[in-house]
Design goal:
Strand order of the largest sheet: 2-11-14-13-12-15
CATH class of the largest domain: Mainly Beta
CATH topology of the largest domain: Elongation Factor Tu (Ef-tu), domain 3
Distance between the termini: 68 Å
Number of strands: 24
Largest sheet: 6 strands, antiparallel, barrel
Oligomer: single chain
Order of helices and strands: HEEEEEEHHEEEEEHHEEEEEEEEEEEEEH
CATH superfamily of the largest domain: Efflux pump adaptor protein, beta barrel domain
Length: 416
Amino acid sequence: MARRNLVLLVPIFGFLLAGSLCGCGHKDNLSAGPQVPVVRVSAPIQRQVTDYDYFDGRTDAVDYVEMRARVTGYLDKINFQPGKEVKKGELLFQIDPRPYKAQLDQTESQVLLNQANLKLALANLARARQIAQTPGAVSQEELDKAAAEAASAEAAVKSAKANVESAALNFKFTEVISPITGIAGRNLLTVGNLVIQDSTLLTTIVSVDPMYAYFDVDERTMLRVQKLIREGKVISLEKAEKDKSKIPMQFGLADEGDDYPHEGVLDFVNNQIDISTGTIQVRAILANPLLGDSDSRLLTPGLFLRVRIPIGKPHQALLVPQAALGTDQGVKFLYVVNDKKVVEYRPVNLGAQQADSLQVVEPVKIVRTKEGVRQAQAAEQGEDSLRPSDRIIVGGLQRVRSGMTVDPKAAADARK
């Protein structure tokens, strides 16, 4: 009987032991609690910055010439290499000059003939006047006729000389000369083709140094800059020209990433806004010298540019990584970890974007309430939403929210 009772007690004891072990395990899990998320934090960077506005632009030649012949004739010679630089006054094309040389010779001969006629007419007039001193020897009609013939001969000489000048110009125009220094395009006709006066396009030439850069400024930016000009924080182009100073700009090419290593000077703002785009055209002048000992240059007309214009003078600012910024219904904010390791919501205003993936942020006034942090109203006295000593969360914003307790790690340590 005792043995039977012992057999019955063994499963019961085992069941109680198992329950006890399960209870102990559950207690251990509760004591561990939920895991606190680790976040990367960093202090805002404080340094002197310059605010910039950014635009896209295109280069354009200062001078652009379409070369057309000023006389009609057959193309005789091509004296330049397409795609290479030509100098001002250099001979580019030669049109067959023989017809125009013959015309010039003919007009020069006509001048000699008319000069001979003039000499005879003047001699006849002189004799008529001398004879007219004897009363009744020459009638007044004959005297007037001799004077008219002399005047007509003189006019014929002048007309012939004008024809010589015209023929000389046509003969000269058989040589097509470059009016500027620049890069010549390809020849659009080959030797032997007929060239029509003022119609046939022979080639194009574009100047290369200096060069223009055109870009469009949107209406909001224009109004903001005008306000800064009225406040004396930015100099206008008119005042810069009057003071013989310059407004600088920087630009970068399509293959230069976020760098703006080249400089130019603003020189023109258009007189009206394009109503179809809501922008106003602005122009800068860019130097484009030869690169080293080569015959190549940095810029070509029509090249895409990234343009950066400084707005105002350098000033101290707070900068944060762009990845640290969040957006809540159009309001930009940062998450800051306070001394109690609790995440706080901090609204900020954005300044100018920097080339090193940093963003200038401007603190706003905030008020602390039971519900959390909110932006101060106009009549409220608050505190700055961001200070240089704050610890901002720079990574993993999706895993945190305001009021959460976190384990902050310096950005460099958190990557280990």
